[in-house]
Structure formats: structure tokens, C-alpha cells
Amino acid sequence: MKTGSLRVKTGLAEMLKGGVVMDVTNAEQAKIAEDAGAVAVMALERVPADIRKEGGVARMADPRKIKEIMEIVSIPVMAKCRIGHFSEARILEALGVDFIDESEVLTPADEHYHVDKFAFKVPFVCGCRNLGEALRRIGEGAALIRTKGEAGSGDIVEAVRHMRAVTGGIRELTQLRPEQLMTKAKELGAPYEIVRWVAQEGRLPVPNFSAGGVATPADAALMMQLGAESVFVGSGVFKSNDPAPRAAAIVKAVTFHEDPAMLAQLSEGLGEAMRGIDVGKLDESELLQTRGW
Amino acid sequence: MKKPLEIGVLALQGDFAAHAAALGRVGGCRIREVRRAGELAPLDGLILPGGESTTLAKLLRDFDLWEPLGDFAGQGKAIFGTCAGLILMAEEVLQPAQASLGLLPVSVVRNAYGRQVDSFVVPGRVIIPPDLPSREVLDAESAGASSETDSRVEDGRRASFPAEFVFIRAPRIAETREGVEILAKHDDSPVLVRKGALLGASFHPELPGDSGVMRLFLALVRHVRRTAGVAR
To answer: Which of A136, A189, A215, B134 is 20 to 30 Å from A165 by CA-CA measure?
Structure first.
């Protein structure tokens, strides 16, 4: 009987496909998310929009809060650790969370090294901005990749950029001749064996979700049509003025992302979306996506 | 039988693409993604895939698929529920209690094998029900290589095949009631059950490399089509 293998890790990621993972900061929000049809919740201390606004060091959430959330919902519970903070990751594993997000939304603990994710039984999801970054994280044992986008912005532009970079990068790999792949691996800064696998299969070896900026059903549908297999919604739900109906509408928009008439119906009368920030107006130093490598 | 089987995979949420790929590897069927009640009519069989049962149940209700699925089963058509799909089919769901289609007379306890850190893979054996032709279930390789399998059939014992069981935050089948056949067990609990045209697995037959359980389902669909709605 084998636990903690990459198969059962990516297996859970497979089960989350076609769904929405929602950021929640307490048990009450977790229940709202579950009732709205979320496939999982991400337990954290503050949503990215507040982290951005309030500043300071952002860390793993209080274990008590995570336990409260785990007790109230029956769906998987994820939690974030800081990049490279394997001690926070061990604590989250000991709590029994179902997935760890080694996340650029929290303040990085290590500027050189990410967590060795093979050393854990619990699966990890990691962010990326392009194919090389995705393959490096997979090389370290990530069971799920999400494009980073720009967390807490409510602006979809970065999520789109990153998803196009990943899918475009994959398409390019499939066009190369075998002798070109080693040079490409060097350019990407990615493990050769994984580069070769992706070139042959035309997809990532783990599921590929989208995050960072989804605020409306249309945003979610856009990311699904660009190749995301599920979406993470961070501040987009609980920073809007009526979270529950918006959450439910985003869930349905993921299922029916190819049906514009249905999307029109789902987008109707949801109230004001989160105000958001135009990412183009942010200073480079204010970006979360540049954390990690 | 020249006409290929029409198999639907409920595609509201979950690993429906993995099921379609697993069916594709076995072959002999046309696969359709199902999101609306109107898409059920041409199908010979339907898979309710793995995913999150709370999400799936909500979407089934919101998109008016609840009763049409009951009617589909009522017509004697074959349905295979895996993991979350089994939870949807079960008569009773515990921990927490939740509404289900109630097609299969079993009780399931959600996440009873533990959380994700306890998810596991284990080898097991699946019994082929006596009313299904075992040659349709066993692939050429195992049927040819194993004279043991053949002699089992001749002995009047039941043919079986090895399979890998992948459990991911799996439900446990705590109780089976009238007319439910147990086709596989792990740790003293049933993990693959059948009643008439209905099949339910607490594990994920779409994830392993072996295709035996998918083959078994397609043999069941063919059997149901042959007997044209008599099996129930």
C-alpha cells in the first residue's frame, strides 16, 4: 500500500479539474465557498488584496484557523507556505491539509531555493509565469501548476500573459526536432527529461490551473478557453460586494466556459466586482509575481 | 454488433477527460461529454466521474440533471460511478450526510480512508460477474497468458483479473443491500459493486495503466444493450 506517490498527488489535482478553488480566511467564508460549489478552499490569514494593501511580512496562516476550516468543510483544504519555507510546509502537512501552495503571495523565505516537494506526502501546487518556471517546479516535485497572474489585483491581464506563455511554450516545444531539445532545455532552465516529455506529449505532465486576477465569470471562462483546467479565485469572491452569488456564478462559468449564452445569464446582476488595481500602473517592486524564479 | 457503443461522461466537473482517455484506450466506443439532460438520450452507458461530490451534486441540481439521471437508470441503461460518482449513485451518504441520486442500494462514508496524505495505491483482484462474457473483459494478453484464468471458468468458479486500485480521498462502502454483487474488496470493505446495469467503484479505474475495470464496464454496457433493458 503506497501513499504519497506522485500518482496519488497528481490524482487529487485531476479530481479538482473543471472547478474553482477559492481563497477563504475563516470557517464562515469556507462554508459559503463550499455551498457555492467550490472544489477546494485555500485557507489563509488575509486575501492577497489585503496583503497588498496592509503590507508587512505575510506568513502561513494560524494552524487554529486552518483546523477550523478543515472541520467545517468536506471538500479539500489547501494552505499556503512561503517560498522555500519547508518548516511551514512540514507544519501544514502535519495538520493534514490536502494541498500546499508554495506561494509568491506570501513573503518569500528563501531567495535561492524552493521547497524539495518530493520529500513530502502532501501534494504541492506552485505558481509560474512561463514554461521554464513551470518545468522547474515540476522538476522539484510539484503535482499541480498554476499560472501566477498578479494576485490581489482583480486584473486578468497577467494571468492571460502567463497562460499564453506556458501554452505557447508547449506548442513551440512540439515543433522542435529531438536534437534541439537539449539546447531548449538550457534556454528554459528546465530539466531535459521533462522538456522531452512535454515535446512528445504536447502538455504538462501535471494539471495546469490559472490564478491571479480572476474577478468575474467571464474572467474564469477566458482562462479556461486559454487552456486552464481549473481556476483559483483569490480576492475576487470575498472582496466583491455580494460573495455567495458571485462564487456560484464563477463555478458555473468554468463548467460552461464554451457557452456564451449561458455565460451572459451567469454574469447578470452580480453586483459590483472587486474594485481592483490596473497592474500596468503598479511599480515593478509592488509585483508579487516576480517572487520565486 | 457493428454499431459502436455510445458512452457519455458527465463533464460538469472532475476528471472526466481522464475517463474519456481511459475509454479511448480500450476502444470500441464513441465518447461524448454530457452537460445537459438532452445529451443523455442517444447513450448506451454513462460514467459519473471522480471529482468533488458536493460540487457535482450542486451542478446536477442547478442544471436540472437530477431527475433525468434517475430516468436514465430507470430505463435500465448502464451507469458507472467512480469515487465521487459512486457517492452520487449511493442510496445513503454519510459523513457528512448529503443528498444523492439513490440509484445503488449501498451506504458510503465520505473520506473514510482519510485525507489526501492517506491516499494510496494498492494491487487487488476483480471478479467478473458470471453473466458477463469473461473474454470481453480480459484483454488478449492476460487471457492468452493465463491458463489459470481459463481453468477457473471451466471449474465453474468465477473468472477474475488483477487490477490496481488508486484511492484518493476515497469513500468507503460501509454497507451493501439487496441484490448488490461485490466484485472487489480491499481491507474487508467492498470497493467495486454492481447491481444490474449499475456499477460503482470507490477507487479510480481511470487513473492506472491497466484497463480491466473499464473493459468490465464496457462489457456490462454491451450486455445491457443485448438484453435490451431487461437487466435492471
So the answer is: A215
